[in-house]
Amino acid sequence: MSNGLEIRLASRPKGWPTLENFDIVEVETPQPSEGQLLVRNLVMSVDPYMRGRMNAGRSYVPPYEVGQAMYGGAVGEVVTANAEGFEPGDVVLHNLGWRDYAVVDAKHTTKVDPQAAPPGAYLHVLGMPGLTAYVGLVDVAEQQEGDVVFVSGAAGAVGSLAGQIAKLRGASRVIGSAGSAEKVRYLIEEVGYDAAFNYHDGPVVEQLKDAAPEGIDVYFDNVGGEHLEAAIYALNDFGRVAECGMISQYNNATPQPGPNNMSMLVSKRLKLEGFIVTDRAHRKDQFIAEVGGWLREGRINYRETVVEGLRNAPEAFLGLLRGENTGKMLVKIA
């Protein structure tokens, strides 16, 4: 069997990462032990949370180690199966992306059906981003029928699904922000947002007020910073915020001050809750049943931005941080 490539963390970035923070290394193909599978990766995910893992220090997931291969969601084909219930040719979801070949414990994989949906869908609409959007709205924000919902970073993997799920669950109006006129068109014409704006076109607080003159009830936050401050102004009494991410802050070398209107959390009786999708894994079956049903019925639209070749995975990740993707950013490996 031919050797494969893996991508390692070469050094920890200070501020914005660069290609120099990655090493691309040829390695011998590993062999599985008892209870393990050798998987040839087909497609992998790059996600904003990976930026935090490039830093040292304690967080909700361990940091990547300098000199070691990075990892993240991937779908691949089983080459060698040393575990009961698996055979070569099975397609599995696992967490050892950033390499051509992975040896994974069978108990840490999930079989997926490539006939039911393309492999990349299990890293997007039927995977972690989809579950993130679902639990953020249903569990954290407690979205109700008739709510006005605002989603920042709305053209990304999570945001584009959050808006659609909100509509399917009876939101009266869904508003999104994005970083280009093309993405705004995508949100309104393809995804079904009622209103959307380009946050580069003017202060977010003013554009949000124009889009939601009667205020908002739910804010799904992927961006933080100016967006969070604007949402706090726009939220109606007893509004709810699902804090999913703050990508505007991830590459700051020094921390920025937070919103200057936090006192409104008290006067408006707002609920603001951060969440990590892995804490809500018990919701996966309900998510697959509900969102999978909408997908089969053609009621969910999703787009992918696909970069070809494992060697280009670092550039795909940097492009994600720059906002160059529409929908889910994926790397096709084989």
What are the SSEs and their pairings?
Elements: E1 4-9, E2 22-27, E3 36-45, H1 49-53, E4 74-81, E5 91-94, E6 101-105, E7 110-111, H2 128-140, E8 148-151, H3 157-168, E9 173-178, H4 181-191, E10 195-198, H5 204-211, E11 216-221, H6 225-234, E12 235-243, H7 264-267, E13 271-274, H8 284-296, E14 304-308, H9 313-321, E15 328-332
Parallel strand pairs: 8-9, 8-11, 9-10, 11-12, 12-13, 14-15
Antiparallel strand pairs: 1-2, 3-4, 3-6, 3-15, 4-5, 5-7
Q: Could you characterize the architecture of this molecule?
A:
By secondary structure, this protein is α/β, with parallel strands linked by helices. It folds into two domains: 4-123 and 303-332, Quinone Oxidoreductase, Chain A, domain 1 (Alpha-Beta Complex), CATH 3.90.180; 128-278, NAD(P)-binding Rossmann-like Domain (Rossmann fold, 3-Layer(aba) Sandwich), CATH 3.40.50. Helices cover 25% and strands 25% of the residues. The protein has nine helices and 15 strands. The chain has helices at 49-53, 128-140, 157-168, 181-191, 204-211, 225-234, 264-267, 284-296, 313-321, and strands at 4-9, 22-27, 36-45, 74-81, 91-94, 101-105, 110-111, 148-151, 173-178, 195-198, 216-221, 235-243, 271-274, 304-308, 328-332. Strands 3, 4, 5, 6, 7, 14 and 15 form a seven-stranded mixed sheet that branches. It has a six-stranded parallel sheet with strand order 10-9-8-11-12-13, sandwiched between helices. The protein has a two-stranded antiparallel ribbon with strand order 1-2. α3 (157-168) links the parallel β8 and β9 (173-178). The longest helix is centred in the middle third of the chain and has 13 residues, at 128-140. The model has no long low-confidence stretch (mean pLDDT 95).
